[in-house]
Design brief:
The structure holds three protein chains of three kinds.
Chain A (H helix, E strand, L loop, with lengths): L2 E7 L2 E7 L5 H8 L18 E4 L2 E4 L12 E3 L12 H9 L8 H14 L5 H7 L11 H23 L1
Parallel strand pairs in A: 1-5
Antiparallel strand pairs in A: 1-2, 3-4, 3-5
Chain B lengths: L14 H6 L14 E7 L5 E7 L1 H5 L3 E5 L24 E2 L5 E7 L2 H8 L3 E6 L6 H5 L12 E9 L2 H6 L3 E9 L11 E6 L5 E4 L5 H12 L6 E4 L16 H11 L3 E4 L2 H7 L6 E9 L5 E13 L5 H10 L9 E10 L13 H18 L4 H8 L19 H10 L1 H4 L1 H6 L12 E14 L8 E8 L5 E5 L8 H13 L6 E5 L16 H26 L6 E8 L15 E14 L5 E11 L6 H21 L4 E2 L2 E2 L19 E5 L17 H4 L1 H13 L10 H10 L5
Parallel strand pairs in B: 1-12, 10-11, 14-15, 18-19, 22-25
Antiparallel strand pairs in B: 1-5, 2-4, 2-6, 3-5, 7-15, 8-13, 9-10, 9-12, 13-14, 16-21, 17-18, 17-20, 21-22, 23-24
Chain C lengths: L2 E4 L3 H9 L5 E4 L17 E4 L9 E3 L5 E4 L4 H6 L1 H6 L1 H8 L4 H6 L2 H7 L6 H7 L3 E6 L2 E6 H4 E3 L2 E2 L6 E7 L6 E8 L10 E9 L4 E10 L6 E2 L1 H7 L2 E2 L2 H14 L10 H37 L1
Parallel strand pairs in C: 1-3, 2-3
Antiparallel strand pairs in C: 4-5, 5-10, 6-7, 6-10, 8-9, 11-12, 12-13, 13-14, 13-15
Classes of the chains: A alpha+beta, B alpha+beta, C alpha+beta.
The structure holds flavin-adenine dinucleotide and FE2/S2 (inorganic) cluster (FES) (2 copies).
The site of one FE2/S2 (inorganic) cluster (FES) has 12 residues of chain A, from loops.
Chain lengths: 164, 729, 299
C-alpha cells in the first residue's frame, strides 16, 4: 500500500507514491531521479545523504518519505542558481575540496546550513558543522578552508552593503 | 624546464560537475527495465554446501531469476593473480562474503526479500582463523596448494656479522590490523546489452581491461562482446582493484537478457571486498656506536584470508621495503602469507609498504633513542642514495629523493621548534596542564612505483586533435577521485601549448579507450603521462611532415604505448622496483594522560614524487593520505570473531571525522625531477600515507615514553600501558 | 502492512494508544528506530509524533519549571536561550549528541524513551532533577528520570502512555556545570562513558548541592551520591577533586563491549570528572582573582 506524498524539491512541487517505510534518500534518488544526493551508510553516520528540509540539515536516510509529506527540500541540484555556481560551490572547486566527490553534495549542504546559522564561524565551528559528514579522500582540510573563505566573503559583502 | 600549465593550481576538470550533483557515479546509473540484483552470501565463514534450494526465492513476487553456480557458462572462478575465487560457490564457502546465489528482481525490495528465501544447507567446517596455525602443515588446507599462499626469503650480507658489529640492537614485534578502504561509494554498477548485442558493464573497477578479461572467461564470451567502463568512481584506494560486482552483473544480464543494477549496502561492502592485510611482524635491527645501520632482520606473517587476491605481491613489497630508505649492509627478511577464514585482503594504498614502514620506522626511532641521536639526523646519516644497494641488494638506479625530504623536514618549523611547541599548554586550563603531554615524531619512507619486475606494466593512450584546437585524450585508467585526469590534461595542454580548457579526457571505457593498465601502484601519472607525451610527439612529427608537404588536416590522432621501466633482475612477482617516491612526515601529537585520548595536532609532509603536476591535487592527496594514516593508527580495525565480522558499518567501524584530523597540515613538495618521468613527474598517492602511522607512534613515545607496537592505539591502550609502565610519572 | 499516521494533536495519539493495538510504534525523530536493520519489520502502525503540537516548545510551565516538549529536538534545546541560561548543563549534553544532522531530527523524548545506557541527555537530566511527564487517558503523571529509566531499553512507560514533556525545576543562584564524554573519536560518537555535574558555586570557593551522574557505565544512567558527598560544602581543591573522582570510579559498574572495556570505562569516569572539575576550579580561581583586583581598584 503506497502512500501519496507531496514534496517541494528545489522550489518545485511534485507528488510521489512511496512505500510506507521508504526513506527520503530513495525517493529522491529512485523516484525523483535526483541522484546528486548520495548514500554511504543508511544509518545516519556518513552524511552523504544530507539535504536541507524545511530549513534544517537532515540525513535523508533517516527520514521516512511519508513523514516528509509537504516538506520543502533543498538538494545539491538546487544549490546553483540558473547554472551559476554558488559562492560555496565555487570555493569548493577553487580550494580543491573535492576528490572523488561522493561526499561533496552532503558537505556542501552542511556548509550552506552552517552559513545560514552563523556569519563568521571559526574553524572549530566549521569542523563541528561537518563532523557528521565523512570524507575518505580529502582529510577535510580543504573543505574547511572552502567554507571559511566563503563565510569571510559573505560577511564582507554584507558589511559593505551595510556601509552603503 | 619551465612549465605554464603543469605545476599551476588549476581546478579539477571534474569539480564543477561534482559540485552540482551532475556527475553520474556507478550507483547512480539506471536503465529502463533493469533488474535489481542482490547477492546471497555465505551464512558461515567456512562450510561445505550440502544443497541450495532456490525454489521459494524464484517463486517470490517480483523475482525474475535466481542464479547459482549451475548458471555460470564459463569458468566459475576469478582473481587478479590466480582464479581462486568462485563466482558462485557450489560446494564450499571460505568467508562470509562468498556468494552462493544471485537474485534478480523487479525492485530492490523484492530482490532483498527473495534473497532471504534462498535456503542453503551448510555443514560447518573447522575454522582457520589463526595465521600461525595456517603455517602448520597438519592444518586442513583451505586451497589445494596448502595454506601458505606465498613465502619470501631474502638476505644480503651476513646478518649475524651485522649484529656482531652493532653496538645497539633493538628487537620488537608489531601487530597490524585489518583495515577497510571505506570508500564512500560502495561497490555498484549497471549492466545491459547494447543495440549491437555487446554486454556493457558500467561499474567501479580499477582496471577495466582486466575486468573485461575476467568477465569474458566466466561467461565464455569473446572479449569483444563485452564492454567495461568505470568513468567516475566514488573512491577506491585499492579496494576496487579486485572484481566486486562486475561479474555478478554481467552474469545476470547474460542469463536474463535484461539490464541489471547492483549497489552493495555498507554492511555487505565491509564483509565482501578486500582489506588491508593484517600482519604480525618481528624486527631486529642493529646500529654501530657511530650511528651506522648495520643489520635489519625481519619476519612477516601476513593474513590474506580466504583468497589470494594480491597477497603474494603485498608480501613481496613488505619485504622490499623492510629496510626502509636506508643503506644497510646486512639484511635478512623472511615472510609468509597464509590463507585463513578471516575475510580476504588485497590491494590497499601503500600495498605492504604501509605495514613494513610501521616496523622499520619504529625501529629507527628506538635505535636513535638508544644511541642518543637526533632521530632525523640518524636517518639522514643512513639514507640511501642513487647508486647504493637497496635493502634486498639491487642497485638504486634512479634519482633517490629520500635525503632531501629528510633535510627539508629537519629545517621545517615543527621539527626545529619542537621543544617550544611541545611545551605549549596555552590551550588548556592551567590545572589540566600537567596531564597534557605533547610529542613530535618522524618517519621516512619510500614506495615502489609501478607494478615492478615480472608484471606487465604498460599504458596505451590515444590523443585526438579535433577541429578548432580541441584535444581529446582517451585513457583507460579510472578516475577514482585521485585527480589523475586533471594531471593528464595539464600535461597534454603543457606539451601541446593549448589552454587547459581545450583538453578533454575521455576515460575508462573499453569501448572507446585503449588499455592504459591498472589504476594502482602510484603509476598512473607516470605511465599514462609518458604515454600521452609519446602520442603527442607522434602527432607533432606527423604535423610537421604535413606542414612540409603543404597539406593540413584537422582531425589527427595518434596512439602510443609506454612501458614502465623495471630493474633487470627479478626477485619475485613485482619485485623489485626501479622507481620510488619518497617522503618524510613530522607529526605533533597530544596525549591527555587523564583520559588517554590521543590527538594529532599538526603534520608536516615532505614528499618527493618528482615534479608536481597539480599542486591542489598533490596537497589533497597528502591531506587525505594523512587522514587515512590517522585512521589506521588511532581508530580503524575490522574486528572478526571466529570469521564473523563485528563492525560492518560506520557506527562501529570508526573513521576519522573532521574533528580528528588537524587543520595544521603542511605539505611541502620536494621535487627531485625524475628523468624518465613525464616532465619529471612520478607520483605520491601512496607515499603520502605510508609514513603517517610510524610517525604518530614515534611521537607517542616522545610524548609519554611508551612504545606502542599494536595498531590501532586507543585511549584504552594508553591508560593500560601507563598503569603497567614502571616509569609512570 | 505498515501504516503511518502523522497526527497533529496529542488527544489523537492518546486515543490510538489506549486502543491498545499491538505492534504500534511511536516515532519522533526516528534516529534510534530507523538505523536498525529490521527497523519496522514487525510494526503495523507507526505513529509519527514529530508534528504533534502539544509535544513542541520550550517554556516555563504553570509551576515555574522549564517544560521541554517531548518532540523538541536536541538542536532546539542547544539553541534555546532559556536552556542556555537556566539549564546550561542540558545544553552542553545535547550539543554532544551525534552530528548537527542527528540533533536536528533526534528528540529529547526519543532519547529518554529509548533508554540507552549511553544516552547523553540522561546524566544531565538526572543532575537537573528533571521529571518526565507521561500522558495517557488517565491524564498526566510525573516521574523523576531516575525512576523512569529501568534498564537498557526499559522504562516505566505503560503501553498506553507517551512522553509528553520533560520538566526541569529552575534553580536560582550562581551555578557551575559540565558534561564530559569519552568517545571513540572526537567527532560524532556514542559515549564510552559520560559524566555530568552541576552545583552551586560560592564566592569562598565552596560548591554546594552538587549533583553528579554518569552514563554508559551501568545498565542505566546512575547518579553518584558518594561523589556528591565528597564535593558538598567543601572548598574545591585538586585533592577534593581526586577524592570525588575516585568515588566515580568506584561507583561504575561497567562492562566490556565493542566500543570499550570495563576497566577503561571505570577509569575514565574519574578522569572526566577530574577534567570538568579542574576547569571549574580554574574558572573559580580566575573569578576570585578578578574580584580581588576589582576590590583593590575600588579601595
Ligand atoms: C548517527 C547517530 C548518532 C547518534 N549519536 C548519539 C549521541 O551522541 N548521543 C545520544 O544520546 N544518542 C545518539 N544517537 C541516538 C538518537 O539520536 C537519540 O537517542 C535521539 O534522542 C532519539 O530521538 P528520536 O526522536 O530520533 O527517537 P526515535 O527513533 O523516534 O524513537 C526512539 C524510541 O523512543 C520512542 N519514543 C520517541 N518519542 C516518544 C515519546 N514522546 N513517548 C514515548 N516514546 C517515544 C520510540 O518509540 C522509540 O522506541 C545517535 C543516533 C544516530 C543515528
Ligand atoms: S547514508 Fe545517510 S548518513 Fe550515511
Ligand atoms: S571526496 Fe571522496 S569522500 Fe570526500
Amino acid at each position: 500500500m503506497r502512500v501519496d506524498i507531496e514534496l517541494g524539491i528545489n522550489g518545485s512541487r511534485s507528488r510521489f507514491a512511496v512505500e510506507p517505510d521508504e526513506r527520503l534518500v530513495s525517493t529522491l534518488r529512485d523516484r525523483a531521479g535526483l541522484t546528486g544526493t548520495k548514500q554511504g551508510c543508511k544509518i545516519g553516520e556518513c552524511g552523504a545523504c544530507s539535504v536541507i528540509m524545511d530549513g534544517k540539515l537532515v540525513p535523508s536516510c533517516l527520514v521516512l518519505s511519508a513523514s516528509a509529506d509537504g516538506a520543502d527540500l533543498l538538494t545539491v541540484e538546487g544549490v546553483a542558481q540558473d547554472g551559476n555556481l554558488s559562492d560555496l560551490q565555487q570555493a569548493f572547486v577553487a580550494e580543491g575540496a573535492i576528490q572523488c566527490g561522493y561526499c561533496t553534495p552532503g558537505m556542501l549542504l552542511a556548509g550552506e546550513y552552517l552559513l545560514s546559522r552563523y556569519q563568521r564561524p571559526d574553524t572549530a565551528q566549521i569542523k563541528e558543522a561537518i563532523a557528521g559528514n565523512l570524507c575518505r579522500c580529502t582529510g577535510y582540510t580543504k573543505i574547511v578552508a572552502a567554507i571559511r573563505k566563503t563565510a569571510k566573503k559573505r560577511s564582507l559583502v554584507k558589511s559593505s552593503a551595510q556601509g552603503r | 624546464m619551465k612549465c605554464t600549465v603543469v605545476g599551476k593550481r588549476v581546478e579539477r576538470k571534474d569539480a564543477r560537475a561534482k559540485v552540482t550533483g551532475e556527475t553520474i557515479y556507478p550507483s547512480d546509473r539506471s536503465r529502463e527495465g533493469m533488474l535489481w540484483v542482490v547477492a546471497v552470501r555465505a551464512a558461515h565463514p567456512h562450510a561445505r554446501i550440502l544443497s541450495i534450494d532456490t525454489e521459494r526465492a524464484a517463486a517470490a513476487a517480483g523475482v525474475v531469476r535466481v542464479l547459482t553456480a549451475r548458471d555460470v557458462p564459463g569458468e566459475n572462478a576469478f582473481g587478479i593473480q590466480f582464479h581462486d575465487m568462485p563466482v558462485l560457490c557450489s560446494d564450499r564457502v571460505r568467508y562470509l562474503g562468498d556468494v552462493v546465489a544471485l537474485v534478480g528482481a523487479e525492485s530492490r525490495r523484492a530482490a532483498r526479500q527473495a534473497a532471504a528465501l534462498v535456503a542453503v544447507d551448510y555443514q560447518p567446517l573447522a575454522l582457520l582463523t589463526d595465521p600461525e596455525q595456517a603455517l602448520d602443515p597438519a592444518t586442513p588446507a583451505l586451497h589445494p596448494g596448502g595454506n601458505i599462499l606465498h613465502e619470501v626469503h631474502f638476505h644480503k650480507g651476513n646478518i649475524s656479522v651485522g649484529f656482531q658489529k652493532s653496538a645497539v640492537i633493538v628487537e620488537r614485534s608489531y601487530q597490524l590490523p585489518m583495515m577497510d578502504h571505506a570508500f564512500l561509494e560502495t561497490e555498484a554498477g549497471l549492466s545491459y546489452f547494447d543495440e549491437n548485442d555487446v554486454l556493457c558493464v558500467e561499474s567501479c573497477g580499477q582496471y577495466i581491461y582486466r575486468d573485461r578479461k575476467q568477465i569474458a572467461s566466466v561467461l565464455g564470451l569473446a572479449e569483444e562482446k563485452i564492454r567495461v567502463s568505470a568513468e567516475m568512481v566514488g573512491g577506491a584506494f585499492g579496494g576496487k582493484d579486485d572484481i566486486t560486482v562486475q561479474i555478478q552483473l554481467a552474469l545476470m544480464t547474460y542469463v536474463t537478457g535484461r539490464p541489471a543494477k547492483m549497489v552493495a549496502s555498507r554492511e555487505e561492502s565491509i564483509v565482501a571486498h578486500s582489506k588491508r592485510h593484517p600482519a604480525s611482524m618481528w624486527f631486529k635491527t642493529g646500529a654501530s656506536k657511530s650511528g651506522k645501520l648495520m643489520a635489519v632482520e625481519a619476519r612477516f606473517l601476513s593474513d590474506t584470508g580466504a583468497y589470494a587476491s594480491l597477497g603474494g605481491p603485498v608480501l613481496n613489497l613488505m619485504a622490499e621495503h623492510a629496510a626502509g630508505p636506508y643503506l644497510v649492509p646486512h639484511v635478512k627478511v623472511d615472510g609468509h602469507v597464509v590463507y585463513t577464514n578471516n575475510g580476504f585482503s588485497g590491494a590497499f594504498r601503500g600495498f605492504g609498504c604501509t605495514q613494513a614502514c610501521v616496523g622499520i620506522e619504529s625501529q629507527m626511532d628506538l635505535m636513535a633513542r638508544a644511541l642518543r641521536r637526533d632521530p632525523l639526523a640518524f636517518r639522514q646519516a643512513n639514507v640511501l642514495h642513487q647508486g647504493d644497494a637497496a635493502g634486498l641488494g639491487y642497485e638504486m638506479k634512479t634519482a633517490v629523493g629520500a635525503e632531501p625530504t629528510i633535510r627539508a623536514a629537519r629545517a621545517g618549523k615543527l621539527y626545529r621548534q619542537r621543544r617550544r611547541i611541545k611545551k605549549d599548554r596555552t590551550h588548556v586550563s592551567p590545572s589540566l596542564a600537567p596531564f597534557i603531554r605533547r610529542g613530535v615524531g618522524v618517519a621516512s619512507q619510500m614506495q615502489g612505483l609501478g607494478l615492478g619486475v615480472g608484471i606487465e606494466d604498460q599504458a596505451e593512450v590515444e590523443v585526438v586533435l579535433g577541429p578548432g584546437g580541441a584535444v581529446r585524450v582517451k585513457v583507460g585508467t579510472t578516475e577514482i577521485g585521485q585527480g589523475a585526469y586533471t594531471a593528464y590534461a595539464q600535461m597534454t595542454a603543457e606539451r601541446l601549448g593549448v589552454p587547459l580548457e581545450q583538453v578533454e579526457i575521455v576515460g575508462a571505457d573499453t569501448g572507446t579507450c585503449p588499455d592504459s593498465g591498472a589504476t594502482t601502484a602510484s603509476r598512473t601519472t607516470y605511465a599514462v603521462g609518458n604515454a600521452i607525451l609519446l602520442a603527442i610527439a607522434k602527432l607533432e612529427q606527423r604535423r610537421s611532415a604535413w606542414a612540409a608537404q603543404g597539406t593540413g588536416r584537422e582531425n589527427l590522432s595518434a596512439r602510443a604505448n609506454f612501458t614502465v621501466p623495471t630493474q633487470d633482475r627479478q626477485l619475485g612477482d613485482g619485485l623489485p622496483h626501479l622507481l620510488y617516491s619518497y617522503g618524510t612526515h613530522v607529526v605533533l601529537v597530544e596525549v591527555n594522560t587523564l583520559t588517554g585520548e590521543i590527538s594529532v595536532e599538526a603534520v608536516e609532509a615532505y614528499l618527493d614524487g618528482g615534479r608536481v603536476v597539480s599542486p591542489l591535487g598533490f596537497e589533497g592527496q597528502s591531506e587525505g593520505g594523512i587522514a587515512q594514516g590517522i585512521g589506521y593508527t588511532l581508530f580503524e580495525e575490522v574486528l572478526l570473531d571466529r570469521g564473523r565480522f563485528l563492525n560492518t558499518n560506520f557506527d562501529t567501524y570508526i573513521l576519522p571525522s573532521s574533528k580528528d584530523v588537524p587543520t595544521a597540515i603542511h605539505t611541502v613538495p620536494i621535487e627531485v625531477m625524475e628523468k624518465s618521468g613525464p616532465l619529471g613527474a612520478k607520483g605520491i598517492s601512496e607515499t603520502c600515507t605510508v609514513g603517517v602511522a610510524p610517525a604518530i607512534l614515534n611521537a607517542l613515545e616522545d610524548a609519554i615514553g611508551i612504545r606502542f607496537v599494536r595498531l590501532p592505539v586507543r585511549a584504552e591502550d594508553v591508560i593500560l600501558a601507563r598503569e603497567e609502565s614502571p616509569h609512570e610519572s | 502492512m505498515l501504516r503511518i499516521l502523522r497526527l497533529p494533536a496529542l488527544d489523537q495519539v492518546i486515543e490510538i494508544l489506549s486502543a491498545q493495538e499491538s505492534e504500534t510504534l511511536l516515532m519522533a525523530g526516528g534516529t534510534d528506530i530507523l538505523p536498525r536493520p529490521a527497523a519496522l519489520a514487525s510494526t503495523r502502525l507507526l505513529i509519527d509524533l514529530s508534528q504533534v503540537a502539544e509535544l513542541q516548545g520550550i517554556a516555563l510551565d504553570a509551576e515555574g519549571r522549564i517544560r521541554i516538549g517531548a518532540a523538541v529536538t536536541h538542536q532546539e534545546i542547544v539553541d534555546h536561550p532559556l536552556i542556555q541560561r537556566k539549564a546550561q548543563l542540558l545544553s552542553m549534553a545535547c550539543s554532544s549528541i551525534g552530528s548537527v544532522q542527528i540533533r536536528n531530527l533526534g528528540t529529547i523524548g526519543g532519547n529518554l524513551a529509548n533508554a540507552s545506557p549511553a544516552a547523553d541527555s540522561l546524566p544531565a537530566l538526572v543532575c537537573l532533577a528533571a521529571e518526565v511527564a507521561l500522558a495517557s487517558p488517565r491524564g498526566i503523571r510525573f516521574l523523576p528520570v531516575s525512576a523512569f529509566i529501568l534498564g537498557p531499553g526499559r522504562t516505566a512507560r505503560a503501553a498506553d502512555e507517551l512522553i509528553e514533556s520533560v520538566r526541569i525545576p529552575v534553580v536560582t543562584g550562581r551555578r557551575v556545570a559540565f558534561f564530559k564524554k569519552a568517545g571513540q573519536r572526537r567527532g560524532m560518537c556514542c559515549a564510552k562513558a559520560s559524566v555530568a555535574m552541576c552545583a552551586h558555586r560560592h564566592g569562598d570557593g565552596r560548591l554546594t548541592k552538587p549533583r553528579v551522574a554518569m552514563g554508559a557505565v551501568a545498565a542505566t544512567v546512575i547518579s553518584v551520591p558518594a561523589a556528591e558527598r565528597v564535593l558538598a560544602d567543601r572548598v574545591l581543591t585538586m585533592a577534593v577533586i581526586e577524592e570525588a573522582a575516585a568515588a566515580c570510579c568506584e561507583a561504575a559498574q561497567a562492562i566490556d563491549d565493542i566500543r570499550s572495556t570495563a576497566s577503561y570505562r571505570r577509569h575514565v569516569v574519574g578522569a572526566l570528572l577530574t577534567e570538568g572539575l579542574a576547569e571549574i576550579y580554574d574558572h573559580m580561581q580566575d573569578l576570585a582573582r578578578r574580584q580581588a583586583r576589582r576590590r583593590r581598584r575600588r579601595s
